[in-house]
Design a protein that fits this description.
about 325 residues, single chain, binds nicotinamide-adenine-dinucleotide, 12 helices, Rossmann fold, 7-stranded parallel beta sheet
Length: about 325
């Protein structure tokens, strides 16, 4: 297969590119390197089945050319990360909505199988745990810019499902829950790399809020396995939404303690109010747990990595790349 991966120089995209090349597919990456980096993909440069375009998904000429050569498009390019979304809401909405509109237009022209990255954020403040694909979605008010990320991704879902219903395009929606692993940047509010980097730098681990909010962290290797399994089953998955995530729930306080234990950090944990970390009135979800019954039913997928293995992998990667870490001031929110 020839696969176009938008956002392929990002965290999930580069792991996906590696997995696809390893199984014999050709991969074209389209990425503007806004949150991704050339570092993530330079190891593929010498592979004749790999091509790379540094450009924006809203450049329709480039997108059209790449889509014309693709059997499948995995659309991962997006404005990502709570901090980025809160600081630059206009960019978030434009990239996520207009970009997905452009990708679906190109996919329609060349009848490409299309997988769209959505997010567990669309479940918003829902309290029915675990979250299943057909559950109601409960977003906060539009006066709080953090909800623009969920709303923009939700509109992407509607656009993708409409392209399937109206034009028969084989579109699948992937609702990723927190995905972590080697190579994830901590710059935009990603909690696990931020914690590990703070501990390695001998700084207190910055926990936002009371730390009793919980998350389920899925290893990027497991996420990519699920994605590829869904891509390989167009008949059962076209026009469908799938949660992808681990069911192992942990509070952020417990996560911080795990990182302290793993790294031997003596600097401890520092609680920072949300209002200081982001903006006054910031709203967070208390729990976010996926129901992956549907994914398991269609693909047989189950996560293979538990949190201790994920943290060990992240720590090993951070230690090996200590020289490329961002400046220390980026460890704490502005
Ligand atoms: P990432 O920031 O590492 O990857 C996004 C990539 O898109 C980056 O390489 C960035 O440079 C690129 N990009 C952004 N805007 C672009 C544009 N206009 N044109 C071209 N490229 C552009 O983030 P990630 O964690 O790998 O996320 C990948 C996808 O998965 C995103 O759509 C994100 O919303 C979704 N997602 C991720 C998580 C997670 O936990 N990592 C959770 C939920 C959803």
């Amino acid at each position: 297969m020839h696969v176009l991966v938008t956002g392929g120089a990002g965290f999930i995209g580069s792991h996906l590119t590696q997995a696809l090349l390893a199984r014999g597919d050709s991969v074209a990456v389209l990425d503007n390197l806004s949150t991704g980096s050339f570092e993530n993909i330079k190891r593929f440069r010498d592979d004749a089945r790999f091509t790379f375009a540094i450009d924006d998904i809203n450049n329709t000429l480039v997108l059209d050319r790449l889509a014309s050569q693709a059997d499948a498009i995995v659309h991962l390019a997006a404005a990502v990360g709570v901090q980025l979304v809160v600081e630059r809401p206009t960019e978030t909405i434009e990239t996520n909505v207009l970009g997905t509109h452009a990708v679906l237009g190109a996919a329609r022209r060349y009848r490409c199988r299309t997988l769209l990255a959505s997010t567990s954020e669309v479940y918003g403040k829902g309290v029915k745990i675990p979250f299943a694909e057909e559950d109601d979605l409960l977003l906060g008010p539009s006066s709080r810019s953090r909800w623009s990320y969920a709303a923009s991704k939700l509109l992407d879902e509607f656009l993708g499902l409409a392209a399937h219903r109206e034009f028969g395009l084989p579109v699948t929606i992937l609702r990723f829950f927190n995905t972590v692993g080697p190579g994830q940047t901590g710059r935009y509010g990603m909690v696990v790399p931020r914690f590990v980097r703070a501990a390695l730098a001998g700084k207190p681990i910055p926990v936002f809020g009371d730390g009793e909010q919980s998350r389920c962290f899925c290893h990027v290797g497991d996420t990519v396995r699920a994605l590829v399994a869904l891509m390989d089953q167009p008949e059962q998955t076209a026009g469908e939404i799938f949660n992808i995530g681990s069911g192992e729930e942990v509070t952020i306080n417990a996560l911080a303690q795990d990182v302290v234990a793993l790294t031997g950090s003596a600097a401890g944990i520092q609680h920072i109010p949300y209002s200081q970390a982001y903006a006054p009135g910031f709203e967070d979800m208390r729990r976010r747990v996926p129901d992956t019954t549907k994914l398991h039913h269609v693909t047989g997928w189950q996560p293979q990595h538990r949190l201790d293995r994920i943290l060990a992998d992240v720590l090993a990667w951070e230690q090996a790349h200590a020289d490329t870490h961002p400046a220390q001031e980026e460890l704490l929110p502005a």
